[in-house]
Amino acid sequence: MELLLRLLLIFIKFIAFVAHALQYVFIWARGRQIKPNLPANSNPLLLLSIQELRTRLRSRQLTSVELVGAYIERIKVVNTLLNAVVESRFDAALLEAASADQLIAAAGGDADQLFAKQPLLGLPVTVKESCALSGMSFAVGSLARSERRADQDGVVVARIRAAGAIPLLVSATPEYCYSTDTDTLLNGRCRNPFDFERTPGGSSGGEGALNGAGASLFGIGSDIGGSIRIPSLFCGIFGHKPTGGVVSVTGHFPNSSDADFQQYLVLGPMTRFAVDLAQLLELMAGAEAAAQLRLHELLPLRQLQVHYALGFEGLNGGMHQAVEEDIQTAIRKAVVHLQTLGLPVQRARLAGFGDSLEIALSGIARLGQMPFVLDWERSQVWQTVMQLLRSLCGKSRHTTNALIFDLMRRTNAFMPSQRLESYRREAQTLAGQLTELLGTTGVLLFPTMHAPATRHGWTPLQLWGVDYTLLFNILGLPATHVPMGLNGQGLPIGFSVIAAPYQDRLCLRVAVELERAFGGWQPPNATRSG
């Protein structure tokens, strides 16, 4: 453990405790207020999975124009409240939907063959702005990049479009994707569909908000430290972080030629429907890479072995903010359910997690060729600190969270540079231990984060729990966030299902079972929180 880093962690834990206490005092003083909810969805088409919609499109019980139009209308209704859309292409999408309908009509009795070649034909998709969509905004939340537009599709976007999907928009991200809060000087604040006073997370925050609001059939997200899983937790949806290196990151911003970066950053699917995850992952990965994942192989649930942990343990756990009881209870409920199905279950003792924060942050600190938000100013540490102070006063062109991320990288995450390599070796050892523990049939149930969505402006406190997610990027393990209902405040809760490298199908199989058993996504207006 690193003394300075751990002192910071303990200090943040104390500040968080005081801040949460003050929040309760403020809420009590303000009195109970009914918070506004999103308008309820009245269109049953928006409650159907890809599999169900494809059946209707193939049999011509439904047209793509009807489906795309339904999602466009829902987006227009919710985006006035959520501010999740950076730029839309609704007119072009409707034209593409009409073309898809013509292809389906012309295929006649050969529609099955048509959909075999284009399994997403006529289905709408939303795209995180950092995943290049040709002709659309590519600013990625930065004032310095405000005029940037993507000159071509990124590899994953191109694959999804080749499968017949119709992009509707690009969605909001933090500046350079360097935050767990989607709130920028360029685009403003993106809001959580379950509570407008809270963040949808980041960096795939716009995708999380739209999917959680029932305004996207599925989204393309990206994740280098939890950027798919954290918004999935905060917005109550499924999100999968694939095995490192399986899905191409070409066309993503930020990017790097660093070999570690190519393993840590992943693109993956975000959706309300666990049953759709496997096919979406297959299409995003491409045929050659997908073959390594064996997604089509029959996987009887009873072949799996389940390990679980309720958070970091021992001294390390004591330094972190405690995992909220609702999240721990969700893990216990899943464990009991899987036991009743006959799966062997055991509590995991994760001794190798003692340096989780150092392992996670050192992985990011080591990255080379990855842009800083202040690169164009040739910034050094002291200049970053000055910009950070200016941002706190509203005087910077950059957001506070992005500058904190810059500062952590420039200071080696407050660790001596000579220690970074030792934590790399520790990460390799831990990855080997987990791979051996989980093997080809094991999964680990583990908190995605220690708490559900936080209030706007408080994300620097939650940032210090980022090793819950970042750790598994550094280790290269696949992870699926599974929603498990709402807590007493009406906020989504859930946890992650983790497997050994290239065993993504185990995560997805457990997600499908837990969706069946516990209902998966719930609409924001199912509960009115106060």
TrEMBL record:
Gene Ontology cellular component list: endomembrane system
One matching Pfam family: Amidase
Gene3D superfamilies named in the record: Amidase signature (AS) domain
Record keywords, A-Z: Ligase
Record field: transmembrane: none
Catalytic residue positions: K128 (charge relay system), S203 (charge relay system), S227 (acyl-ester intermediate)
The keyword Lyase belongs to this UniProt entry's keyword annotation: no
Residue span(s) of domain Amidase: 66-508
Protein name: Amidase domain-containing protein
GO molecular function terms attached to this record: ligase activity
Source lineage: Eukaryota, Metazoa, Ecdysozoa, Arthropoda, Hexapoda
Gene: Dvir\GJ24159
